């Protein structure tokens, strides 16, 4: 797998993202092109985003499936699931939506085991779903929880990410210097928007630097990666219906099974398609 944006060979690529319920393909592509992936489970939970919900196409339209969680301003790692019955309902909807897809029966027993268990914490449920996809897509990138690296973050965004990276690298690659161009944080798909949080001013004590500059001052370069949502056949949709993007990654898996990895990696563009050859 080539380095994003032509990074030098040997560059260690780190990515980080909040855990989420049924994450879509962007999340897993970001993981696949990284050398280390950090699950940001120790940061503030944000309501009405992707951390406890995902859209599914069901009965002719997109619908949110949301996991009921405890109220409060606790971090993601502390969010508790408040209604186990809702998960049973989700599983019923997922079965109804995907029962006729070519590979649903292969993965249904794994999902049924998850949906019939009693989960206390949202993070653990999200990770269980994520690990099914990781294995099915052949993603071997080490997956670390931020909460295992530090209990509760006290730093601003750029400094926090740099600190997490400095703690994560020795765990995966052993002790080694982190110098200029040796470690790169994969922030987002290119191009980075002007309002991206890493381009915003850092804390007042950072002498007017941006969050990105704070990271770079601490020896972590910042880069983006190429990404274009792959288009593939969705056999659960009515004939002639346009492609539905950003559904659960299980949408690709249920429809294409062993070919899902090649389709996921095609999101990097023509070069990656060429590398995968006939798998696409």
Automatic annotation (TrEMBL):
Pfam families linked to this entry: WbqC (PF08889)
Protein's name in the database: WbqC family protein
């Amino acid at each position: 797998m080539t380095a994003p944006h032509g990074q030098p060979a040997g560059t260690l690529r780190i990515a980080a993202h909040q855990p989420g319920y049924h994450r879509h393909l962007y999340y897993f592509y970001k993981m696949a092109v990284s050398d280390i992936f950090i699950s940001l489970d120790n940061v503030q939970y944000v309501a009405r985003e992707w951390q406890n919900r995902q859209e599914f196409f069901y009965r002719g339209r997109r619908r949110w499936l949301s996991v009921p969680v405890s109220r409060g301003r606790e971090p993601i790692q502390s969010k508790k699931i408040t209604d186990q019955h809702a998960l049973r309902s989700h599983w019923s909807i997922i079965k109804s939506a995907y029962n006729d897809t070519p590979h649903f029966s292969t993965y249904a027993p794994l999902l049924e085991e998850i949906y019939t268990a009693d989960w206390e914490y949202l993070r653990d449920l999200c990770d269980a779903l994520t690990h099914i996809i990781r294995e099915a897509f052949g993603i071997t990138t080490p997956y670390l929880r931020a909460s295992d690296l530090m209990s509760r973050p006290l730093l601003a965004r750029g400094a926090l990410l740099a600190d997490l990276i400095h703690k994560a690298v020795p765990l995966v690659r052993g002790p080694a210097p982190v110098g200029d161009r040796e470690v790169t944080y994969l922030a987002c798909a290119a191009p980075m928007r002007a309002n991206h949080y890493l381009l915003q001013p850092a804390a007042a004590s950072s002498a007017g630097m941006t969050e990105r500059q704070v990271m770079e001052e601490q020896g972590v370069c910042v880069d983006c990666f190429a990404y274009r949502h792959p288009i593939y056949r969705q056999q659960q949709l009515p004939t002639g219906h346009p492609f539905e993007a950003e559904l659960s990654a299980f949408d690709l898996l249920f429809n294409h099974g062993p070919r899902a990895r090649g389709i996921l990696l095609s999101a990097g563009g023509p070069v990656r398609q060429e590398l995968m050859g006939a798998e696409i």
